[in-house]
Each structure stands twice: as structure tokens, then as C-alpha cells.
Amino acid sequence: MDQDIIKFGLAAFATLLVVVDPPGVVPMFVALTKGETPASRRAILIRAVLIALGAALFFLVAGRAVLSYLGVTVHAFSISGGILLFGAAMPMLFGQRGGLQSPEPKEPTAGHDIAVFPLAMPLLSGPGTIATILLLTSQAGGNIQKLAAIGIAIAVVFLVAFVTLYLGARLIRLVGEGGVDIATRVMGIVLAALAVQYVLNGVTGYYHLLLGH
Q1: Which domains does the chain have, with CATH numbers?
Q2: Are 100 and 131 within 8 A, CB to CB?
Q3: 60-110 residue pLDDT tens
Q4: Burial class (CB in 10 A: 0-12, 13-18, 19+), 65
Q5: Fewest beta carbons within 10 Å, which of 76, 115, 188, 211?
Q6: Contact at 8 Å (CB) between 92 and 191?
């Protein structure tokens, strides 16, 4: 596989992993499934991850068509996406969930499937995840290999999310609330840097586009 494709896929994986932020979802998953049996908790988790994965792949497939329909250029979306992701990074720097996901999901009503809401959406596949996928799709520019790399990155990220949430209760006991807080802050720093890079790429690309004219 081409080195550029591998680098693009790794960058997509890193960005999505930070935005989805599985360790940040762990305390909420544990709280939401507190009264469930291990088998029921596992079933809820499987449904949640599959639904979130399906939503993410939908936007991967339809993302470019959406941007084209709206008349949004790659460079404009890169800049706006970077600004949005930077906004998501700021709460994480203070130990909170990303601002584009759901920091405080509402309590589900009676009979409501928590696998759908709030676990799948918006905790795992929220606006931040969707915006990131659209941003990556625009950067792929219709390149099939790059789009496939994004698809693989999405699948691996949600696999990591499944394992992290499955071991959630043990993870909290192992690292403690402080450990989760530190991990969230580190992810916030990484996401902020990636967001700035997206803005710089968009500005540079638009500048070269103007020079081309």
C-alpha cells in the first residue's frame, strides 16, 4: 500500500479516536448500565457500537455528496471543521467530554433503548464524529484508497471503543477517576493540535487555489 495512504489512514484513526474518546465515555456507560446484568450490559454495548458504526459509515459514504450538494469546498470545510474540533478540544483540556459530543446526556425515558440514545448517539457517534468524518472525506477527494482507509480507521476506532467500554468498570477501578481525567486532558491537547493543523491546511490550500487563478 502507498505510504501516503498509510499515513492518511493513521491520521484518520488518530483523529477519530481522540474525537470519539472511548475513555471519556466509560464513566457514563458504567452509570447508565449500573443495574444491568453482565449479559444485558454486553448486549447493550454491542447494539450501541454497531449503531454508531453504521451511522459513521453512512456519513463516510454520503459525506462527499452532502458537501457537493451544499457547494462547500474542501478548504472551507477544512477550516470550519478545524474550528469546530478546536471547540471540542477545549472542554477536554479541563477534564470534561468534548464539546461536540455530549458532555451531559439526558436521562433516557422509561422503555427507551439506551443503546441508541445516548450511547450510540450522541456519545459514540455524535456531531463531533460526523464532522470529523465529513472533514476526512473531503480531504480524501474521491480517492477510493483513502476512503477505504477512513473506513478501516472507523472500524478500528469502534473496535477500540467496544473493548474499552467492555472493560470499563475494571478500567475505572484500575486507573481511577484521576487516570480517566488525565487521559481526557491529554486527548484534548492532541485534538487541539490536530484542529489547528486542519485550519492551516485549509488556509494554505485556499491560498494556493487563489494563486492558481
Answers
A1: 3-212 (1.20.1250)
A2: yes
A3: 998 778 777 888 777 787 788 788 778 877 887 886 655 444 444 555 554
A4: exposed
A5: 211
A6: yes
